[in-house]
Amino acid sequence: MDNRKKFDLTSTFIVILVLSVIALVVFLGNFAAKNNFISLPQINLFNKAAKSLNPNAYYFS
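Above: the chain sequence. Below: its structure as tokens.
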């Protein structure tokens, strides 16, 4: 009269499903970022305009 095996199988299936969905979201996010489907902020430490709070500031040097 022990239902432990059925519970373990169900919880294992749920954990595998959740982990696979998380892995799929991470993979698709990286794929979209690499192919410019989404735009991520670019960090440029050597450009003064990139560190400025004014997005329209351009420094030509």
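DSSP finds two helices and no strands in the chain.
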